[in-house]
Design goal:
Layout lengths: L10 E4 L4 H16 L4 E7 L4 H18 L5 E7 L2 H9 L4 E5 L13 H8 L3 E5 L15 E5 L6 H14 L3 E8 L10 H25 L5 E7 L2 H8 L5 E6 L4 E2 L2 E2 L2 H9 L4 E5 L2
Parallel strand pairs: 1-2, 1-4, 2-3, 4-5, 6-7, 6-9, 7-8, 9-12
Antiparallel strand pairs: 5-12, 10-11
Helix pairs in contact: 3-4, 7-8
Length: about 280
């Protein structure tokens, strides 16, 4: 069922009735409103639970319409596995949003549905995590944080981060990782490391030059990291509006096992995490 016709790619939200699913719905509604996207709500069930599934989707649809009365809202009740249903929807979605864990319909534990969708979806996937109450606001509170590696393969993640920041009217903190924590920094003279750090800072500025022109109203903070990339991003995450990271599939880049950083952040970040798979 749909409130009105739409031509844009939808914001897809996985609905299962859990608390995190409710938070994911609110995130999706706000994102669809800000970026003028239709909203599509998805739930999976078996044949015996279709009536309950319809009721759950109707309640979520009503909640979305109360929040944004003119929002284009549609629902999908699918049979089968939740991850399969969301990956199918991802093929035509702008972004998929779901909780990091939930009831039997979606994300029972991180590492099952939410992890599978985040690592395999063709579009960006936002996994909603509840912020740790013991974590005070970090250096990037109120901003979008994006992790950038030393190749060009994090371009899609960077694009997504800037679109999100621009739609929210907030800044971006771009973090570039240029050496892994297992490299012996005493193996070369100090001045060589200083020069390497300057070179990496220049590389980051160059990588972001086009974004400065395209998004002149977005404040940009540049940070380079020589060390553990995951720890650096976790450090930036408390209070952040969103943490964006790429996932490149199999293989390695710059000594980092591809997918390991995004996987770790899905477990440890103190804010919603967007995984944007390189294609």
């Amino acid at each position: 069922m749909t409130t009105k016709l739409s031509t844009g790619s939808p914001v897809v939200v996985g609905i299962d009735g859990s608390d995190l699913s409710t938070v994911a719905l609110a995130w999706g509604v706000d994102d669809a409103r800000r970026r003028s996207r239709p909203l599509r709500l998805v739930h999976t069930t078996d044949k015996t639970g279709r009536a309950a599934g319809e009721e759950l989707l109707n309640a979520a649809s009503m909640r979305a319409r109360r929040a944004v009365p003119d929002l284009d809202v549609s629902t999908v009740l699918a049979d089968g596995h939740a991850a399969d249903a969301l990956l199918k929807q991802a093929a035509e979605a702008d972004v998929v949003v779901l909780g990091s864990r939930g009831r039997s319909g979606f994300s029972r534990l991180l590492g099952s549905t939410s992890l599978q969708v985040a690592m395999q979806a063709s579009c960006a996937v936002v996994v909603i995590r509840l912020a740790g109450e013991d974590a005070p606001p970090g250096p990037s509170a109120g901003r979008v944080v994006v992790g950038i590696d030393d190749s060009s393969r994090s371009e899609r993640a960077t694009d997504f981060a800037f679109r999100q920041a621009d739609s929210r009217g907030i800044g971006v903190t771009a973090v570039l990782s240029w050496i892994g924590p297992d490299i012996d920094s005493t193996a070369s003279p100090a001045h060589e490391w200083e020069q390497a750090a300057q070179d990496e800072q220049a590389l980051l500025s160059e990588r972001l030059a086009g974004r400065r022109e395209e998004y002149p109203d977005v404040d940009i903070v540049e940070k380079t990291v020589r060390g553990d990339f995951t720890e650096a991003l976790v450090h930036e995450s408390p209070g952040a509006e969103l943490l964006v990271v790429g996932s490149h599939g199999r293989g390695t880049v710059g000594g980092i096992v591809l997918g390991s950083v995004s996987r770790a952040l899905l477990h440890r970040a103190h804010c919603p995490v967007a995984v944007v798979r390189n294609q």
